[in-house]
């Protein structure tokens, strides 16, 4: 997998970067590309040696690491590395690249290079890549595939992004259900290979209907003359092409699956889901929570068109505006005292802001608790009690700190006392709201993270202003 | 895995819940427990039949589903279900339970029941469970293990929570490196079983030093008389017990691993890491981002002691307080105009609040982009441009909306114009800061999510007040 001289891929990458930065390699490459007349013969030989070493080093890296290398070097050097990657790694590297670098590499490549790279990929990988390739490459690429692969690519492209069909893979070992273990063993011996991390052999009947799965572990340990039907798991967890990929991923987590069959509406085996593919999805799902919490549509991508991104944020801006105008109306009711004590206007944001952030901390904790299922109906009240106690401690402490700062700034003991009390009360409310909002969202069938940051800020602002100004009226 | 009558585990769970809610089963169980005199013989027979059916249904469920069942029924019914679980599932079910329900179940159980349940677990699972068991159960449990298992449990308990050692498993197939494939095959045939999802066989020398791994796929397809050393991967990606589990998880994602050997400081094979265990960790890591963003220490747990939770939040509250007092000082500088136009105090929070939330949306997007590596040095500027354009559109649109609402509320055209302009400028600044903060945190070697929510709110508050009040002074 890696050069034995380097204990870590990152060391190999750094070494390669240093090599590229030595000008002679770049020069040697340019010579080779442009067939320019060579300088001194000796110099050129060294250059070519370096180039060959570079090529060797690059192709010893895992495609994920080649992609990282491409991403971390300046654009003008990417052409060199890209052209030194062997065809057998080029396609896999393309799949691992970030969108922007992939786009750049693809635009700068010849059609035949891209077709050659894609030919070393499995059908499901080609599907992922096809959407990123220029239109004129696709017919060439499709015509280079076998009829079976072409059909797999076409059908997989028809599945929605978040369905099992879009995440399934096609390189799976399949056997018929009417043979013995011995026959299965001989069959794969003759074939001479099994897909990497195959894990399980799929078992179907004459019509291609899924009958069960055979774990490689069982095939290895059970003796050979017994019929396959006696050994297979006849009721494996399987998925339909139209099932939600997100739910499939959570089943993989729940039941510790490595591979599971995918069937179509007629029960025919059409592919497999592998844990390696779903790892990416699981990561993606968790990342989405961060977006949801900030009030972003889950489908927003980093480089979506401006009009789409702008619209995407409207619902939450609108809700936010509504809440903050309500908070504003509350302040407006207290204009008499504010015109008497203008300082109140300056102190107004302090308790509301601290309350908002304290509330956000609680929200984050609750969202995680709900996601990991640590928080459930049985211990909700316990959490409310605990967060209330934390707020009692922190409210008293930071209320006092705020009171002292206010006293130092304005030499007004009543004002300092108002600040202390307001901070204390606002933090208590923030704790309760912070626990309540995600749980309420979940009870309403929504994602508990959905816009919770907008809601908590609005709620603590409104309450914070009300508490602070009411206390000011009462005490000052 | 599940009762053929139910296509989904959730259906089976609902059916079981309905059965428990029929009083006769509970009664039958109480009879059985307390050896109370039975009512009518016929009635009791039906009851016992129901109880047997219930037991059958429960034990057909996956332990993860039994745990879900226990979590979703009222506490007073948990005892029944818990006692109907067979010993072979009880330990695994305990591991799947939420902390609070596990605590409840464990407290209500007899020592011998817990020991019996734990005996069906692997050493690594016992390690996870031991920390949750009452002190008096542990000696009994340890003495029921084999010497080898006891050592595994003791050594694994010594590893820090976030190390590979704490996540490794011990049930792994191992062979010596000086035999042929045929011998390996015969060895496992004779053993009659391999761990579930073993995936790879570990190969060691006489001294237990790791020499390589043998994929089950290769063992199945290669012919039998060749020495194992010719087939094994002699340079597999392996981990040290002291390596970071988080980095191991990201290697699993990166290189699509299913299983990898774990070695100690002397190169001796001591266990394996499996993707199924790391799935939980990957999920946990992603969840932590949510906490970090809100300014929470990554180690905070839902039910940590109050003093620990309270202290955990101090650094960010302190920073927050500092920033908001700076914002307050800015408002204080404008006391002349506020005392002239008291309405300004009421309108003050509006632009700052909208700016804070708009900034949070951008931050969430950038954090995700950095985590998925879609955002890198090459396209940062492109993102700044895009977010600036989105802010231009949304600033103009929502600035106008805000202006119109202000006009309707106060019938003051200049004031409405101040609001429109302030909203527009604040949203532009929020976009730039929103892209800048996570990227700056990352450049400083910090997690880009670290406290970003606190920082962005502070920055937009300060700027929002300054912009709004300066515009008020200039225009009103």
3D architecture notes:
Chains A, B: Belongs to the SLC41A transporter family. Chains A, B: InterPro entries: CBS_dom, CBS_dom_sf, Mg_transptr_MgtE_intracell_dom, MgtE_N_sf, MgtE_transporter, SLC41_membr_dom, SLC41_membr_dom_sf. Chains A, B: Keywords: CBS domain, Cell membrane, Magnesium, Membrane, Metal-binding, Transmembrane, Transmembrane helix, Transport. Two copies of one chain form a homodimer. Chain A has three domains: 9-158, MgtE N-terminal domain-like (MgtE N-terminal fold); 174-279, Roll (CBS-domain), CATH 3.10.580.10; 308-475, SLC41 divalent cation transporters, integral membrane domain (Tetracycline Repressor, domain 2, Orthogonal Bundle), CATH 1.10.357.20. A three-stranded mixed β-sheet of chain A has the order 1-2-3. In chain A, strands 4-5-6 form a three-stranded mixed β-sheet. In chain A, helix 15 (245-255) links the parallel strand 4 (239-240) and strand 5 (259-263). By secondary structure, chain A is mainly α. Chain A has helices spanning 9-21, 23-34, 41-60, 63-72, 75-84, 87-96, 99-107, 111-118, 123-130, 137-143, 147-157, 164-167, 181-191, 216-221, 245-255, 275-293, 306-312, 314-333, 335-340, 343-371, 380-410, 413-443, 452-475, and strands at residues 174-176, 200-204, 210-215, 239-240, 259-263, 269-274. The first copy, chain A, starts with 8 loop residues before the first helix and ends with a helix. The longest helix of chain A has 31 residues, at 380-410. The mean pLDDT of chain A is 85. In chain A, helix 6 crosses helix 8. The first copy, chain A, contains 23 helices and six strands. Chains A and B meet through helix 4, helix 7, helix 13, helix 14 and helix 15 of A and helix 4, helix 7, helix 13, helix 14 and helix 15 of B.
